[in-house]
Amino acid sequence: MMRLPAPLSERIADELGAPAARVEQVGGGCIANASRLTLANGKVFFLKWSDGEAGETFPSEAESLRVLAKAASAVRVPGVVAVHSATRDVPAFLVLEFIQSGAAHADFWDEFGRGLAELHRVDGGYYGFSIDNYIGRLPQVNTPGHSTWPEFFAATRLAPQVNMARRSGAWRRSWESPYNRLVNSLGDILPDRPAASTLHGDLWSGNYMADRAGRPVIFDPATYFGDRETDLAMTELFGGFDARFYDAYRDAWPLEPGYEERRELYHLYHLINHLNHFGAGYAPSVERIIRRF
Fold first, then answer.
1. Residue 225 pLDDT greater than 60, yes or no
2. Which pLDDT score is estimated for 227?
């Protein structure tokens, strides 16, 4: 069992109406502290807290979860209970509904694929989001106002990550010319105005699970409105999704021809983000895609 800082414990007791009786560390705390919080009245919640930069991500994570929960029905999303930014004395914290994990039922992947397609059917009406948020611990720009999807993807997805890599020295000079050619060709490769689907934004195998009833649950989002293929591409970047998931998705909403080529460009965003997070191990993958296009 872990102990919370006293000011945080007092603030949570005021917010939730009962003091903490037990705090148990759980997995998933690579960016912030993550725990199962049991109150003296027996209620159980999921608690994230941080006295560092990670706490800055909590308000936008809460908003992402609210938007996903409103749009999704076949896929479960944790409910937001409380969120607070850091003060001088109290660390930032985010309190969510606690969802007990379980074994996936027989139709888990079919339900997950159909549920993601249903989520993507909810059109936000523009590319971007109401606020900027985070992809991992790094900022994700969601500024609306771009009339086409290639413009949005170049300006708010690729350019900020590339600029971060340039500043840190992770970007190689030899990439500049092929990268500029890639950006100039985006209009020929990506769809001009696809549906502005409601996206999870960071849908890899660490950000879903089965609940106690075996239903799919998604969490830790980086939500925005954009091309639905970006979510599917992320699921394929590191694996962990069954073939039935993709079959069910395509049955519910078939993909347009050429997805396999566009998938590489959508991978590039996340690979440069990983280059910025974790270093040069991702450079060969980044270079391969840049030079391919």
1. yes
2. 98
